[in-house]
Amino acid sequence: MSQGWRRDLAALGRSWRRAGGAAGRQSQNRMDLRAALAGKSWAALSILDQEPCCESRDAWYFRVAFAFEQSQLVFAAKVPKPGCASLGVQSSLRAHCSIQRLIGRFTDHLPRELVVPLSPGEQSRSPSEEEPARLATHPVLQVLISPEVPYQTLACFVKRSHSLHKTSPGHYERLACLLLLQVCMGLEHLQVQNVGQGDLCPENLLLVRCPGLSRNQQGKEASLSLPRLLISSFFKVKDKRRPCSTSQEQDWIKGLAAPPSPMADELNVGMLIYQILHVDITLENALGFRSNRLPEIPSLSIYSTGLKRLAMLLLHRDPCKRVSIEQARSILQVLLWGPRQELFARSKKTLTLLRNWVEVKRALLLLKFAENSAGAGASPSLEEWLCCQYFKEVTEHMLYQVTQALYTP
Predict the structure, then answer these.
(1) Looking at beta carbons, which pairs linking 368-372 to residues 24 or more positions away fall under 8 Å?
(2) pLDDT of residue 304 exceeding 90
(3) Engineered SS bond to 104: which of 37, 47, 131, 338, CB 3.0-4.6 Å?
């Protein structure tokens, strides 16, 4: 069975990528599309909305269309804000489901019909002065074309989800685990390429609707669905060593004089847990420089205790005792798909027990997808694809270590 489930789960992953919505369909002839976009400017694009569909901390995003091989393809035009760091690193990144892709770039004046929110200093100008002043201040802007069209940032999602967290805490905190899992997967991909995230905060994490949910769908259905999460800000890491002294972290907090280092990933993900769960926290308090305890995370669902434990492991005062991003990803997978602590209350934890548990879960997973394919034939969802990735790679040895970290007081 071992070869069979691995082959079938891999096939499911390919099926999800093929059904990956607009981005997946548009990427089948990616090289030709890049060539078609080369040298183009705003004049070659059809602007679909005058206002940004999404605004992150470092860029505005506009929905645009491009005619390609008798099709009208919809993209996002990314317009970096003034002072945005160099974007050269992003162009060299290998593709990943949690990393924003670029398929074109150009420099051009911002079209008059596009509405970009003005800074406080610019808002005092009269309407007749706005256009000349804008062109004089920013005569040419760099524009990047991405196949993924974001509809909001993680910060917007968290802000709008207070009521959902109260009325459906189990569902909301499961969404939180799935979003954090995508963050960790993206950070692992960047670390392999010696690249770091430029500013990992909710305002710079983009959300993209998955296939099957219309852009115009609103209300409960939209709020309950799992979006794809994209990291969109990057820098080249010069030093991959992890500092192991809190004095270095105090200097980092006070001045941010040195470029960010990979050690910040763990801190940032730990902070994200609190932010997504609507708990106020500052980095200084999180590391215990003013307090010996982390803020309390209310126990609202079966995920609350595990998320609190993960936050504690990521924000440990001793950097050398923090879990890595890879370990954080594994902990989130266990929180989502097991094994749960109840398994070890009934039986002593052994490698044999964990191996049998994995084999049973794999068999049930394949049976579920076989039933689905025999029915309506719907494409697998993003959550199902993430689940397959977990059971394709997990081993009993990995589970033993992860459950020790997660469930041991």
Answers:
(1) 369/8, 369/12
(2) yes
(3) 37
